[in-house]
Structure formats: structure tokens, C-alpha cells
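User: quick one, fold this
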Amino acid sequence: MTLTMTQEPLLQVRDLRIAFRIDKHNTFEALKGISFDVPATGTVALVGESGSGKSVSSLAVMGLLPAQTTVIDPASSIRFAGRELLGLPLREQRALCGKDIAMIFQEPMSSLNPVFTVGFQIGEVLRLHMGMTKRAARARTLELLHEVGIPDPQRKIDAYPSQMSGGQQQRVMIAMAIACEPRLLIADEPTTALDVTIQKQIMDLIARLQRERRMAVLFITHDLGLVGEIADRVIVMRHGEVREEGAAGQVFGAPADAYTKALLHCRPSLDARPLRLPVIDDYLGGRILPDQMPDQVQRARGTTPDDQPVLVVNNLAKSFWLREGLFGKREFKAVNDVSFTLGRGKTLGVVGESGSGKTTVGLTLLRLHRASGGSALFEGRDLLAMSDREYQAYKRRIQIIFQNPYASLNPRFTVGQILLEPMRIHGIGADEMERTALARQLLGRVGLPDAAYGRYPHEFSGGQRQRIAIARCLTMRPEILVCDESVSALDVSVQAQVLNLLQDLQDEYGMSYIFISHDLSVVKYISDQVMVMHHGSVVEMADSDTLYRDPQHPYTRSLLAAIPRGVL
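Assistant:
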């Protein structure tokens, strides 16, 4: 897209400084004087890790920052179409935001009201901002649902958010955002939690709407692959400051800032599998010079007939029974006839869209779901057929890292208590002193300081919490580790650190991984073999290099075609 840069920008942010009050005497400076423009019909991307100030910038534009705790420098300025937004009276602000400026939030289930139908919620926007009658608003809502690709809009208009998939919920959010034909659309991480195919559909939809409606788009993300496909200009942020700004091709083709280079090289590539992924500190700490490429020595992956099997799964099945009508019920086959062999010291990647059965396979193998059929042989014994008492001895040998480190750690326990509890239950360590020493040793092993031992989970970042979850698993010295979307919620730099840690642990202890993910670039990097699931069944399985080079099944090909390749 060619931008006419001589036109006055639609959005002008100048020297924006924002701090948040921590207590009576202290504040935290979230933005440190950032400036940028968004042209009237262009797409600008704000890129950076969590805590960089991306979302704070967008919320400031929308006027959604909490007034009681927010301190904005009087010299700061946010102008929209020549109109100053900072200090705008609340009534004028409400009239502007939602009509001329609209926002798509990251998590649709937190943004959509669960007690109202989606039709009511979209219609409410039209009635408030456009003055439409209920009948006119309903007719326009049907048009919007059709425009954003909701199937059967006549029926879906009366559905509740919980009755729609994640991708459909995000489409409803987009329909709500474009309902009043805004001049500026802010998209704050709109595809973070979505599968790669749904992600591509949403990105294509936003790009199409932007072209057809000639909107300006401010796109906020930490996924550089997406940025390369949608943005005209890129602004790289870190710690509340702009580190680099320029045309997308220039920033990604010839980045000038060491931090930008680090972000680009942290993410696994489809074309290479280095022994270790570089991390931010490698560049900013001087271990990799800014004008150098990271180590390109490749790690060999794949399986051989000589691999020693550690887990043999045959015809695994899991069904759920759903209510239908007043007394009826129907069977939903979440996993159907899944078989695979996991080699010792190897990684099996499991990919597929939401609802494909990936997570159900992992939870069933750990007996967190009761299997409906099949077997899982570990050292010749069927884990699924054991009594609870027999299985107790095997619990510590097969463990799981859950997707959400915020929900999987007890907020009332210190890190030390979190690590000691499983050791006490399984009788690991001769006494409390030995267990404490092991817990502290494991903290160092996962890259956390000894001081973390006495702190609580809320005092850590998402990446650090995931390291605590890994350390908790390691206290039991498992032989099989199920990683259920364990890096999907992390920034690319933190993701690289966790992937390096998992690889180090596999090299050192010979652990075997079942790595469940919808991020196909990460799966290729870490997996020896990949299993593709669709509607509960395995549609293809092959060594990772073979599958990515020559996929056989149409569904596999559609997944690979949807991978963002803007900067890869």
C-alpha cells in the first residue's frame, strides 16, 4: 500500500508520558515520552514485549485509563483529526470513542457481556451512536455479522457469546467495532489466543475491512510474523520508549536497533533449527554483536527404528456425554482411535485447531480424564487400566505443564511451598533440609534467583511463572512431560528462554515431551515427530522435517499455509 505522507496524520501522539500511582509516594512510569503518527488510511503496528507500553498507549487514545491512578504529563498530546483528546470532557469522549475511534480487545470473552445476545450488544452500539431504532439496528446487525463472516447470521444474532467459538467471538467484536464506520480502528492483540487458521482469517478480515472502508488501523501485537503481513509502518517499543520506527520492510529487512534484531531472531524459524535460540540479553548484553547473525549450527531432529519407546499409545478414545433436550443426551467423541509411540529423549509435537482433541489426549494420558477406550503402555504396563493405588507410583513419572501459569500456581503458596509440596507427597528427599536444597537448586536450574524461594506467584512475570511451573515438575524427576500450550501466552523473547530450557533439560536428563501447540513454527523447532489432529482423529504423522517439507493431508497443508510469514 502506498501512503501519501504529505497528508496530516489522522492520529498524532506527541511526547506522551504516563505514570501510575503505586501508593501515596511512588509512581511507575509506563510511557516515557513516546511520539508517533497514524496516517488516515494506513496501518501502523506497535510491537514489543509485555510491559513495553503498547496497550497503555492505545487505552490513552480511547480515554480508558483509570483516572484515579493515572498521571499524564501536561505537556503530552494526543490529537485525533486535529482535535486534542487529553482533557476532553467525558460526554464528548463517549461520543467520539465507539463511533469515530473503535477498539478490538484481546480477549473477547472478557469484553462481551455473557448475559446478552451478540445481536443485542452490536445493536446497542448502533442505537447509542447512530440513533437507530431497534428494528433498523437489528437489520444492520445482520448485515455486519454477514460482513465479518459469521455463518448463519439469522440464527447467530440471537446466540450468547458462550455459544460461539473463539474465532466467532472475535468476529463479533470486530462487527461491533466497525458498526459505526470508525475512522480509526485500534486492534489490541486481536489474534493472540486463536489457532493459526482462525488467526489468518481474522487478519485477512481486518485487512479487507481496512481497504474497503479506508480506515486507519493501529495494530498492537508481540507477534512479528503478523506485523510483517499487515503493517505499513512499525514502531518498536520497550520499557515505555520507542526503540525504532520506520516502514515495515525497512525495519524487518534492515533493523537498526539491537532490540529489534533480538526480537526478530528470538522467534523460531521454519527454515532453521539452531542449537539454541538467541534471547534479548544475548544482544543487549553484548554476547551477540548487533551486526552479527546468531549461531547457525543446526540441531538434528527426527526418529529412527532404534529409538527406545517410553510410551506406546494404542487406539486411545475419549467421549463426553452432552445433554440434549430435557432427558436426552448425545455422545461427543473428543478423541477417536489415536495411536502413537513416544521415544525416550524424543519430542512428539501435537498440532491442530481448537477442538481437535490435542489437550484431551494429554489430559487423558495423565488420567485427568477417564479414557473411553484404548491403552497407554509405560514400561509394558497400561497406565489407563491401573487402579488409583497402583497409578500413585507412576504419577510423578509423567507430569504436565499447563498453558496458563497464572492459573496453575496456588497464589497462597510461596514458590518454596509450591516446590516442596509434591516432594513431600511422593517421598522425594530424605528430609526437609534435603528437599529445600533440591528446591533451591531447581530454581537456579530454571534461571530464577535464590530470592524467588520466599516470594509469591503474583510477584513474577508470566515467563517467570512458567519457569516455576517447570521447576515444580522437575521436583518429581519425570520421564515424560506433557507441555500443553506451555509457551503460547509468552512474549517471543521469554518463549525462546523457555524453549531453550526445555531443550537443555531434555539433553541433560533424557526426558520425553508431548508438546501440544497451535504455533507451528515452535512445533517444528522442538519436535522430532509431529502428529496432526482434526476433529479428534489423527490425520497425519511424520518426522517434523518431512511433514513440513511434504505434507500429505489437505488439512495439514491448510495449517502450514496459514503460518504468518511476514518476517520469517
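User: anything notable?
Assistant: The CA atoms of residues 352 and 533 lie 5 Å apart.
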